[in-house]
Specification:
The protein has one domain: P-loop containing nucleotide triphosphate hydrolases (Rossmann fold). It contains 13 helices and 8 strands.
Length: 254
């Protein structure tokens, strides 16, 4: 099944929100997704109430002491499963450098432990370009890039596109990706101008679905829930439902 890295080199674009809510809806549909938090800020881990005190019980344990990925999985609310992050993950770049073995380390573990045989994997990638973010891209079948509707996010999206094209020279294949507009406010002319610019730039790689600015999406992390657990009838829940339907229809997330 699909392994999707949710990645953007700019923070604050809805990366963690998107990873969480896609996984939550997949779980509601019986898909048993696994989330992997590769961001040392551990926001996804915190929202899932899956924080660990010992770094070796987080994904860092896989990199530092060779802990099994399956042994690191924690149960979260709503039927979700997550391999949690920890601040010590920020040390991984220093520990391993950027050789091929380091960049493929997560992919090797997923394959060795058969974690992807019958479940989708959603990876919340580190926004900093380094070993962790490259591990997520190298392990992924596809990359989903959220872009909030502001000028700096456009710059982040273009930088991410340049990064993916450079990685394609190493992987010897095109990295399938979709760009997703988040925090979209249709009352603002700038939002529509950004939509037009990105649609001209990325064509069919830009999702038709837009994630609107929504109070419930902003509130749900405070309650340690997905938007489906917090406000299942909200506009945010509707938008992520439409997004998953779109991604499944084109076999991007199947």
């Amino acid at each position: 099944m699909a392994k999707v890295a949710v990645f953007n080199q700019k923070g604050g674009v809805g990366k963690t929100t998107t990873a969480l809510n896609l996984a939550a809806l997949l779980a509601r549909r019986g898909a048993d997704p696994l989330m992997i938090d590769l961001d040392p800020q551990a926001h996804l881990t915190a929202i899932c109430d899956a924080a660990v005190t010992a770094p070796e019980r987080s994904l860092y344990g896989y990199y530092s002491v060779g802990a099994s990925l399956a042994g690191l999985i924690k149960l979260a609310g709503g039927g979700l499963k997550i391999i949690p992050s920890h601040l010590d993950l920020s040390k991984v770049d220093t520990l391993f450098g950027k050789g091929p073995n380091a960049l493929n380390r997560l992919n090797y573990g997923i394959i060795k432990e058969n974690l992807n045989t019958d479940r989708p994997i959603i990876m919340d990638a580190c926004p900093m370009l380094g070993v962790l973010s490259l591990n997520s891209v190298f392990a992924a079948d596809r990359v989903l890039i959220p872009i909030s509707t502001d000028y700096l996010s456009i710059k982040g999206a273009l930088q991410t596109e340049r990064t993916l094209k450079a990685l394609e020279q190493v992987l010897k294949k095109r990295i399938e990706r979709r760009y997703l507009l988040t925090r979209f406010d249709g009352r603002r002319g700038m939002a529509w101008a950004i939509d037009k610019q990105l649609r001209e730039r990325f064509g069919h790689d830009l999702c038709e679905t837009r994630i609107a600015e929504n109070v419930s999406l902003a509130e749900s992390p405070f309650h340690c829930r997905s938007v489906f657990g917090h406000a299942p009838d909200s506009r945010g829940a509707q938008d992520y439902t439409t997004l998953l339907d779109e991604l499944q229809a084109c076999n991007f997330l199947a």
